[in-house]
Amino acid sequence: MKQKRIEPYIFLIPAVLLVLFIYLVPFIFSIIISLTNWNGIARSFDFVGISNYIELFQTKELRDVLKNNIIYFVEIVTVQNVLGIFLAVLLQEKFKGKNFFRAVLFLPTVICTVAIGFIWNLMLDPVSGFVPGLLSSIGLEKLSKVLWLADSKVAIHTISLVNVWQWVGQSMVIYLAGILSIDKSLYEACSIDGAGKSAKFWKITLPLMAPSLTINIIVTTIGTLKIYDLPFIMTGGGPGHATESLAINVYSSAFVYSRMGYGTAISLALFMFVLIVSLIQMKIMRKREDAVL
Amino acid sequence: MSMMAKAGQQEHLAGKSRSKGNMYAVINYIILGIFSLIALIPFIILIIVSLKTRSDFMKHPLNLPTTFNFQNYVTVYERSSIVRAFINSAVITAGSLLLELFVGTLASYAITKMNFKRAGFFAAVFLIPMIFPVQTITIPVYIIYKHLELLNTYIGMIIMYAAIGIPMVVFMMTSFMKTIPYQISESAMIDGATHFVIYQKLIMPLMKPVISTLVVICGLTAWNDFYLPQIMLTKTVLKTLPLKIYDFFGQYTSDWTLICTCIVYVIVPIIILYCFLQKNIIDGVAAGAVKG
Question: Which domain holds residue B225?
Fold first, then answer.
């Protein structure tokens, strides 16, 4: 009998150790580090109280970075989800070549972001890029002169778009799964009532794919709040700080400027940011789902 | 007469809606074609540039290559130790998959099949890490790793990715194991089988579809990651593929033909794999997202 009570824990121990070692201990540790001025190398450091947090709220740099994150968040979440739904609706019916289109549109999501970033740097290169070349060959001279990554007003939107280019396939696939799980008889009933395509979309498809909308918005939100690879590769956060995200700021504070204390303080702010946004979203979306069903 | 007129009218209407349907289908194809082209063009350009000589690219960056030039592939192969990077990525990805799947399935078995008091508590414990952005734990883990001398090691990376994957593994595994009827494990218990034997011989074989989904999702995460190797793997011999592209770009900033060749080397294995397993990969990602 006694042996039976211990056994579950033997099965659980390895996984629990892993979580303790990589999440719990480091998390507590990071709260402590954030209260120090440690540079990560020296043997001695001082406790500086909450001065890292005060600095974090007072510097203009961090406000700019936060603003960038909000721009990424708003642009990517809206464009990617609208486009994702649009593509999923186009793919919802059975037709020849459907799997081909689905596979092609999904392809960029399996390629590493470092490769994607450099490919798009080449595509947008003012001298040898395909995009400026295409724009000038179809007569859009003015647009072809835009510095997509070097102009501090444009660069952030460019990166948002490339991010959507890479990940829209994922949203599309999740929406498609949601649409395909809708009961077909509903559409038939709607046809008998004489409803057109758009009525079917607004009255049946959209309300009934609410669960996949929730999933998609949470996935894209958390993804964009943590955005790192793409701006790091494409612009390094520049020009100036024009495309720098919170995650890049954490990296450069801690590992470039060796300010571990300040870096952890920002990373904890990022954590709170992600936590709050996902909790709010979860609540709103669940409520809406309940109202629909 | 009126009946005939009505029939004619109906036929006319049916024909109209059929042609309307065809029109929709054509527009469908056109729009999807345009989007597919947008998705593919960057990859096509990448391959074209990799096949050009440097001077050809400088003079006519946008033209098709006049002759196919494979010299870049030889040059990159000789200069970049890309094979070593491939091995590094493969060892780290495979190692982390083995670790997280073994440890995660054991835990899921305990939570769903062993009927003990705190099962619900542990199910929650494994979900909590999902809310942590990797950036929040990287700095302290980096410091801990430094003291344990786990920086610049395979095992350090393997543990890290396994921990990142664990919440997903436990979440999907427990929800799948719950659907397996109790009687199966119970009758085996009566026959005297231990829990480990039931886990190994009865439950795991039934888990194959979930495992393949998890291999796709967690494998891609580890294989494509740039952030953690950038911080934790600073020795050249240990660098993974994404890091290799980044370093190569730093070395040959002005030579796009070589950089593109390096990228082709890195992404071609994944694209080949994708061509064969495209359906499983897409379904896996969709299933993972829906469960998560």
Answer: 80-291
